[in-house]
Amino acid sequence: MTESTVVVLTSDHGDMLGEKGLWYKMSPYERSSRVPLILRGPRELVPAGRFANPVSLLDLLPTLVELAGAEPPSTDGAGVSLLESARREVSGVSPQEREVVVEYLAEGTHHPQVTLVRGPLKLVRCPGDPDQLFDLGADPDELRNVAQEPRYADVVAAMRAEIEARYDLEALEVEVLASQRRRSVVAHALLQGRTRPWDLTVQEQERYVRGDFWAAFRYAKLADGQG
Q1: How far is 165 from 161, CA to CA, in rounded Å?
Q2: Which CATH architecture has domain 98-190?
Q3: Packing angle between helix 82-90 and helix 60-67, nearest 10 degrees?
Q4: Structure confidence at residue 138 (pLDDT)
Q5: Which end of the chain is more exposed for a tag (fewer CB within 10 A), N or C?
Q6: Which has the closest alpha carbon to 105: 155, 175, 153?
Q7: What 3-state DSSP class applies to 103?
Q8: Which SS3 state, helix, strand or coil, does residue 45 take?
Q9: pLDDT below 50 — which residues of the chain?
Q10: Predicted local confidence at residue 125, as pLDDT
Q11: Bridge-partner residues for 89, per DSSP?
Q12: How far is CA 1 from each of CA 4, 64, 67, 218, rounded to the nearest angstrom?
């Protein structure tokens, strides 16, 4: 039996580095949500080329299962093998026929934030905020929200209907808040008594990024009068 090696290069998220005045992840913009996704392996397993179809990290599970020659998992349409995605594109399937959903339900947003990517189009829905639609083909830096432009009216209606068919955003918000309340009980319990970190404790002056996650933000600012 011959063994083959396949290498996957990717990441869980990008980072905003001052674009739109934002830092860290926690947003649906390209700098935050787009990550590298590269497969490298024998030609008989991994087709060579660069493909335009939208993909998601959810595609990794069915991809690895297919590479292993196992039965495909039931993903309820959430993920598609990247090999299958490549086959569809080679056969002439348009990138606009594949949709990818991006969710963000944590800090930095007051309501569930759901983004639908369809080819070069990206619709961001967050109850309480205006819809945002970006045409990444014409506006890769996402500087122009075209959700209110008449020529995109049909696109916005169709993509919004797709999100509403997938999500009950009001019910989702209730579930998220209930989950937060449950976990806050655990967080409070963990603060009782003496705490000891299980990992290596580095001296403050030796840290690459000093302070905690949010305290590090001040190191990215210029003092008054500088710049």
Answers
A1: 6
A2: 2-Layer Sandwich (3.30)
A3: 90
A4: 93
A5: N
A6: 175
A7: strand
A8: coil
A9: 1
A10: 94
A11: none
A12: 10, 19, 15, 56
- SS3 category, 24: strand
Domain with CATH 3.30.1120.10 in the chain: 98-190
Nearest residue to 59 via CA among 7, 8, 121: 8
The single-letter code of the amino acid at 1 is M
Which residues fall within 8 angstroms of residue 84, CB to CB, at 6 or more apart? Answer: 62, 66
Ramachandran angles phi, psi of 185, nearest 5°? -65, -45
Tell me phi and psi for residue 24, to 5 degrees: 70, -155
pLDDT digits (tens, 9 = 90+) for 60-84: 999 999 988 888 777 676 788 888 8
> What's the pLDDT at 207?
62
| Residue 26 φ/ψ region, left for φ over 0, alpha for ψ in the -120 to 50 degree band, beta for the rest | left
* Tokens 């003092």, residue located: 223
Instruction: Give the helix ranges, DSSP H, for the chain.
Output: 30-33, 60-67, 82-90, 153-166, 169-190
Which residues, 6+ apart, have CB-to-CB distance to 95 below 8 Å?
52, 53, 54, 89, 119, 120
* Per-residue CA distances from 192 to 14, 182, 199, 212 (Å): 35, 17, 19, 20
